[in-house]
Amino acid sequence: MKIRTVCLGALALGLLAGAACADPFSDLAALPTFYADAGMKTMKLMAGFKKAWFAMPKHDRVTMTKACNDPAMSKPHAEFCANVLALGGAN
Question: Left (φ > 0), alpha (ψ -120 to 50) or beta: where does 72 sit?
Answer without folding.
Answer: alpha
